[in-house]
Amino acid sequence: MAPPEYEAKKRRVRSDYGYHQVHQTRWFDNDMYAHLNNTVYTALFDTIANAYLIEHCGMNPFSVNNPTPKSQSGGSAVSVGTDQIGLIVSTHADFFASVAFPDILEVGLRVAKLTSSTVTWEIGVFRKGEENVKMVGTYTHVFVLRETMRVGKGGMEAPVRQGLEKILSGPDSKL
């Protein structure tokens, strides 16, 4: 018998996730078994989580090499949270059904757990037009000071935390 958490993940729907992206699979995403290679799922995790951090939390991963990046509108982008970086400390995936090229994927993101210095993301992968989730993964970042690679005294920076709280999945998820 599967654990209750597994069964709950298997019942996820798009509306369980507060942030979404669409991804077109590519020919070389398939593995020798004709389904999406596991490394592609990891890339999806990384892409959606970092896009959210950039778009909604003010993170600027390029600030070290380009301190004043241009926004898409041509002006300077506001750079918040550049004293910290998020390091991956844990990943996990539960697979319920296969996807493969040429599927178009709809990927959902939510914050499953938020502590003073960590965020555990939950990512749901759906095939476009289908309601059943194909995979649910978790991905944990710990926010550390860029210079020391250690957690700062105040935990994650306030703008980052505020952005993460917008897609926090429930009141019991915050510590």
From TrEMBL:
Coiled coil: none annotated. Keywords: Hydrolase. It holds the Pfam family 4HBT. Signal peptide: none annotated. The keyword Hydrolase applies. Residues 34-131 form the Thioesterase domain. The keyword Hydrolase applies. Transmembrane segments: none annotated. GO terms for molecular function: fatty acyl-CoA hydrolase activity. InterPro entries: 4-hydroxybenzoyl-CoA_TE, HotDog_dom_sf, Thioestr_dom. PANTHER family: 4-HYDROXYBENZOYL-COA THIOESTERASE FAMILY MEMBER, NOVEL THIOESTERASE SUPERFAMILY DOMAIN AND SAPOSIN A-TYPE DOMAIN CONTAINING PROTEIN (0610012H03RIK). Belongs to the 4-hydroxybenzoyl-CoA thioesterase family. This is Thioesterase domain-containing protein. It comes from Penicillium malachiteum.
